[in-house]
Amino acid sequence: MKTHLTILAFLLLLAGSPCVAQTSQSAIKEDFKSSSLNQPGKKYPMVNSQGYARFRIEAPDAQSVVVSLGLGGTKGGTPLTKAKDGSWMGTTAGPMDEGFHYYHVTIDGGVFNDPGACNFYGSTRWESGIEIPAHDQDFYALKDVPHGNVQQILFPSKSTNSVRRAFVYTPPTYDKDVNQRYPVLYLQHGWGENETAWFNQGHANLIMDNLIAEGKIKPFIIVTTYGMTNEIRFGGLRNFDIKPFQTVLTEELIPYVDKHFRTKADQAHRAMAGLSMGGMETHMITLNKPEVFSYYALLSGGLYKPEEIKDKSKVKLIFISCGSKERPDAVKNAVTALKEAGFNAVSYVSEGTAHEFLTWRRSLHELAPLLFK
């Protein structure tokens, strides 16, 4: 329980990291362009070259309109001002971190999505999304390279008396050589999200396609599924019971994937990773089931201690990452302790980011070449 609460404290600290800096409005450049995540034909929201975001909401009868950014709207609000035409407009108080951000609009106390933006599942609901172009976005860009396939699968779950959903990424080579088998990475989302997050918000498939095209990784399969986390209210993670999801993952989903896909179905060729609360799930399941996974990765999702791992011979890699605006020293110190204890451990810190998807996109980009060597 002590270890569980330590991870809980770490996750709560991460989730509170700010993503908007306070700067002078007079310094804003008027070079705004429509966000890449806008609905077809919609001009707003807009983003400028400095990372400021500008919003326009049509609500002529409203008395108050506020845009709330970040997971659950916890990163601060941007009040909009009513214009003569009845629309409401406003610009963030400062530049936002590069990468993807959730947001919603509060109109006279009611919470709504922005009709101008595409929606993404986060904060236990479909939220609007905005993308601040990153200087290093090339690694997750859609390029003219061979692309893998992301498919939905439905698998039976006796433990939950239901049919559950997962998504499976197979690399571009999967359908070309029917005799080739592949390692598998089971990749978990964070609290408030679901199995769509890593491919919609995270661009995991594009990251993989680009790395494979560059010859930087050996192709492998990625599987994402719902981690059964969202029934727990944010801040109440101490009440989360890993056992039901552990059963679904290790006794139902993995056997299904191994039966229906050409996997290398053994511990040596299986990895588990997760972001935020998905990292907490990864931490607990890999410790509980060392015979299932040999590669472990926590992305803004807690730490491993050497004494927690009973048989180091079963562990091929421990990867721990976070954003530079989270707790990088804790991550680095944990990895140093693991190395001193004889583990193959790697730390990664995403510069200039907090508890957000650019941190996790970059983390996957760093992790993938280390897997299944």
Blueprint (SSEs and pairs):
Layout: H1 2-15, E1 33-34, E2 46-47, E3 53-58, E4 65-69, E5 77-79, E6 81-82, E7 87-91, E8 99-107, E9 110-112, E10 119-122, E11 125-132, E12 149-157, E13 162-170, E14 184-188, H2 197-200, H3 204-213, E15 221-225, H4 243-260, E16 270-275, H5 277-288, E17 295-299, E18 317-323, H6 328-340, E19 345-350, H7 357-367
Parallel strand pairs: 14-15, 14-16, 16-17, 17-18, 18-19
Antiparallel strand pairs: 1-2, 2-3, 3-7, 4-5, 4-8, 6-7, 8-9, 8-11, 10-11, 12-13, 13-15
Structure, described:
Keywords: Signal. InterPro entries: AB_hydrolase_fold, Esterase-like, Ig-like_fold, Ig_E-set, Mycobacterial_A85_antigen. One of its GO terms (molecular function) is acyltransferase activity, transferring groups other than amino-acyl groups. This is Esterase. The chain is built from seven helices and 19 strands. An eight-stranded mixed sheet has the order 12-13-15-14-16-17-18-19, sandwiched between helices. Strands 4, 5, 8, 9, 10 and 11 form a six-stranded antiparallel sheet that branches. The chain has 373 residues and is α+β, with helices and mostly antiparallel strands. The protein has two domains: 106 residues, Sandwich (Immunoglobulin-like), CATH 2.60.40.10; 232 residues, Alpha/Beta hydrolase fold, catalytic domain (Rossmann fold, 3-Layer(aba) Sandwich), CATH 3.40.50.
